[in-house]
Amino acid sequence: RIKQCETSNAIFSDNTSGHIYLTQNKIHGYLDLVGHCHLEGDLVGDSMSINNDLGYVSADIYQCNFYNTISHLPPNSTIDECYLENLYLAGGGEGLDATGNIIEQATLYNQSSLHFYRNHVWGDFNLSSSDWEDAAFVNNMVDGDANFITFNNTIAYNNFNGAFSCTEFNHVYNNNFTIDFPYVTLGDYVRDYNNYYPGINTSELHAFHIDPMYVSSSDFNIQNTALEGLDTLLLTVDDDFDGDKREGHSAIGADAICFPD
Q: How far apart are CA 214 and CA 172, in angstroms?
């Protein structure tokens, strides 16, 4: 256990059969951890430090700031309420649950069963997989470009502010887009009840073209009451990006903004 320490060096720990606890530390180097890892309230890395290898057995990361790249995670890890400079996974990390994080950019290769909820991605988000997967990208706000080269993803209730592309065998609905997006027409593909502004869409049965009137270029909470009641329940989602309940006159996208009757 390491608690409330500050070091300019890297930390290496190999404890495959045990647990590694880091709490409220300032680590200006990098982490190379082997075992069941638990991180809470830690500040890790800087612009000069190299990538972090976390876990290999399990990793639970809560309210931490990573100022360098996370390059490895064990299966079924959790990352909640963290700041991530760069999430770059070229292998491993399947089953990752990421909730309530600020992510500068993310590139995820050969991943499966990922679940991203209520994250704000300031840069680009790229996800690719060569396998069938059961994954969800729900209630997120993405300021950069998003690219999904995947299968069997649920991509719903998000606000996308950049370019978007997606391959076949995915389910895309109840999102806000700034432009129309290309997609493969073959296979089992569900794309419906999305809002495109500006931009046009002619390949979707129920497409909307309403300005969501975002608060600002960095705050994608909506202000336009014309979106009232357009939430179509193709997927059960209890809350929105801010944690507000989706009930009553809910709206398309990451911000439910329940309007008064």
A: 21
Q: Which amino acid is at 228?
A: E
Residue 187 pLDDT grade (very low, low, confident, very high; cuts 50, 70, 90): low
Question: Among 110, 156, 153, which Cα is nearest to 135's?
Answer: 153
Q: Using CA atoms, how far apart are residues 230 and 23, in angstroms rounded to an integer? A: 44
3-state DSSP helix/strand/coil percent for the chain, to nearest 5?
Answer: 0, 40, 55
The encoded tokens of residue 65 equal: 């700031």
| Conformational region of residue 194, where left means phi above 0, alpha means psi within -120 to 50, and beta covers everything else | beta
User: What proportion of the chain, given as a percentage, has pLDDT over 90?
Assistant: 25
Distance of CA 173 to the CA centre of its chain: 16
144, two tokens: 């950069």
The 10s digit of each residue's pLDDT in 37-48 is 899 999 998 866
Alpha-helical (H) ranges within the chain are none
